[in-house]
Amino acid sequence: MSAPFEERSGVVPCGTPWGRWYQTLEEVFIEVRVPPGTRAKDVRCSLGSRDIALAVCGQELLQGKLFDSTVTDEGTWTLEDRQLIRIVLMKTNRDAGNCWTSLLENEYAADPWVQDQMQRKLTLERFQREAIFFFYLHQNPGFDFSGAEISGNYSKGGPDFSSLEK
């Protein structure tokens, strides 16, 4: 079995003052740098369907209304090596056209080039999952779309192949 798409193709990160965020079709990942030696008991993290709040040692690092809705019960956070908090949010809307342009409604927007690259990655991820490729993938299960180039209009998730006969 091949590795998941996002692991093969890398990520398209959007840098922020506190770290970075990036996304796949299904998830939004947030990585927050914290002072070395931070302990889990120093972290206060609240994840709602449309909001997020993160404080470390009483200092607010991230708070606001998310760009789009998430599945509340599936959001998680971990503290890694006592210096990085990784938050994973599950998108409610999981199609390629749902490329978040920013993490919060009015903050941490991706610049136009990064936004373009994010949309391209989500479109490639969608193409890999599309039924139109099923036959070829079935015959060649190791085929990897991560190096594919897309040209033309791929905004809103690219062309719609759902009406083609299977």
TrEMBL record:
Keywords: Acetylation, Centromere, Chromosome, Cytoplasm, Cytoskeleton, Kinetochore, Phosphoprotein. The keyword Ribonucleoprotein does not apply. The gene is Nudcd2. It comes from Neopipo cinnamomea. One of its GO terms (cellular component) is cytoplasm. This is NudC domain-containing protein 2. InterPro entries: CS_dom, HSP20-like_chaperone, NudC_fam, p23_NUDCD2. Residues 14-104 form the CS domain. The keyword Acetylation applies. GO terms for biological process: protein folding. Interacts with LIS1. It comes from the Eukaryota. GO terms for molecular function: unfolded protein binding. It is found in: Chromosome, Centromere, Kinetochore; Cytoplasm, Cytoskeleton, Microtubule organizing center, Centrosome; Cytoplasm, Cytoskeleton, Spindle pole. Gene3D superfamilies: 2.60.40.790, Single helix bin. May regulate the LIS1/dynein pathway by stabilizing LIS1 with Hsp90 chaperone.
